[in-house]
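ok, trying the design again with the full structure, not the truncated one.
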């Protein structure tokens, strides 16, 4: 066993080594003349280095940030950066304070914190232009740090170089929350983005327009329900666009005490003095513990809606994923754990939507061949493709047809996957290869 552990550690260290320095001991080093010239190293980003230095110092100053937020805001407002960080920040922002936080008294005995970052435009050392408008964020707190209202807006942010450009406009954020006895924030946060424009060089680019999002946490006795929803007015690409994209989900019946322990554990994982490996191991352990709690309580993930419209036709997915209450022993056994997973998903796709996609595919294929079929010919080819696709779905038992809509009920239960009641074989896990007799003897002797 000791040999196995040593070999595992050695293998891991080799895998994470930089490839350029990995040379097999029993093979000759390749002659320099045969080595391809290295690609030019991309100039470092002064902006990235400045923001990384800022983040490192501020994170060390406020720690986990859990609990009463007032002391953390006060620390941020009074923080003085080190000389090394000041030098990096001044190079990019022209001063030592890229943003300010000001505290003041507000009506009703409340405290107000206002964060402001002035507009800036910077040509980075790697030839990337980064620009943004003034950013404002206001936070209103009671003196106990239990109730918090947040409101912010950012007019624009953009980044561009010779090959790619992205511009984000009209960013907003608003929230109202209260901190409960477990130091969890209960309430709702919502926000929006007016538009994300993407412009790769040499292409027409695309855009995501009218984005809204919201997250919520609702107490229910000793449990909490966590929800998230978002809507997108349109995603535009080439000459097409997908419209009215909706996504809404809820994680139900999460034990608040288990969630509190997880947040405490994550905060401990981030404490100074720990290596990245130690932090990752501690973080994964916290998620495992929360997973055990979820399994024991039978918590569920509800997909209330995931839908989108294309050329006036909407496809919709709704479903639920949950775990049958499980013991620690079952959680430790992957085969048994998979058997505890349950899922039920309803999918509805109009045949007309399939046909619209087929038209686009046929038109692009024809264009790639230099052909210019008439609209009627394209429609006829698309209909043929649609008939084939729909026929395979119906004949295979994977869907049924109701009022021009393909409907599929997908279920996973007792380690079995079914489509409309028809079982679909899952790939089998290959058996582990038998250990050679000599290795088995070595392990036994090392133990």
């Amino acid at each position: 066993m000791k040999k196995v552990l040593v070999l595992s550690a050695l293998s891991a260290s080799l895998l994470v080594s930089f490839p350029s320095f990995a040379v097999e001991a029993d093979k000759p080093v390749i002659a320099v003349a045969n080595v391809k010239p290295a690609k030019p190293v991309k100039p470092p980003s002064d902006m990235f280095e400045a923001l990384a230095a800022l983040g490192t110092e501020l994170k060390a100053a406020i720690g986990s940030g859990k609990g009463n937020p007032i002391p953390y805001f006060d620390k941020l407002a009074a923080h003085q950066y080190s000389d090394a960080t000041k030098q990096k920040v001044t190079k990019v922002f022209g001063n030592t304070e890229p943003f300010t936080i000001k505290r003041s008294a507000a009506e009703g005995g409340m405290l107000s914190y206002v964060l402001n970052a002035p507009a800036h435009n910077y040509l980075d050392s790697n030839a990337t232009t980064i620009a943004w408008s003034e950013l404002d964020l206001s936070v209103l707190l009671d003196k106990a740090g239990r109730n918090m209202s947040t409101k912010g807006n950012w007019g624009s942010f953009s980044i561009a170089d010779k090959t790619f450009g992205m511009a984000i406009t009209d960013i907003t954020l608003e929230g109202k929350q209260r901190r409960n006895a477990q130091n969890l924030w209960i309430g709702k946060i919502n926000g929006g983005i007016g538009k994300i424009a993407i412009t790769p060089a040499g292409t027409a680019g695309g855009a995501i327009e009218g984005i809204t999002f919201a997250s919520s946490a609702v107490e229910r006795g000793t449990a909490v329900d966590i929800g998230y929803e978002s809507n997108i007015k349109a995603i535009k690409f080439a000459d097409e666009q997908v419209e009215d994209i909706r996504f809404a989900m809820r994680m139900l019946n999460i034990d608040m005490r288990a969630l509190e322990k997880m947040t405490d554990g994550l905060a401990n994982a981030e404490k100074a003095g720990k290596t990245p490996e130690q932090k990752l191991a501690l973080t994964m352990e916290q998620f495992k513990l929360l997973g055990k709690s979820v399994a024991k309580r039978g918590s569920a993930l509800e997909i209330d809606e995931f839908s989108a419209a294309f050329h006036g036709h909407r496809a919709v997915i709704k479903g639920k994923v949950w775990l049958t209450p499980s013991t620690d022993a079952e959680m430790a056994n992957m085969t048994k754990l998979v058997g505890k997973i349950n899922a039920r998903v309803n999918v509805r796709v109009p045949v007309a939507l399939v046909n619209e996609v087929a038209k686009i595919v046929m038109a692009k294929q024809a264009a790639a061949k230099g052909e210019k079929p008439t609209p009627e010919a394209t429609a006829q080819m698309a209909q043929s493709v649609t008939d084939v696709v729909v026929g395979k779905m119906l004949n295979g038992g994977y869907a049924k047809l109701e009022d021009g809509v393909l409907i599929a009920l997908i279920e996973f239960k007792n380690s079995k996957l079914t489509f409309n009641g028809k079982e679909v074989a899952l790939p089998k896990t290959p058996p582990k290869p038998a250990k050679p007799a000599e290795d088995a003897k070595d392990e036994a002797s090392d133990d």
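Keeping the full-length input from now on. Confidence is low (pLDDT under 50) at residues 1-37.
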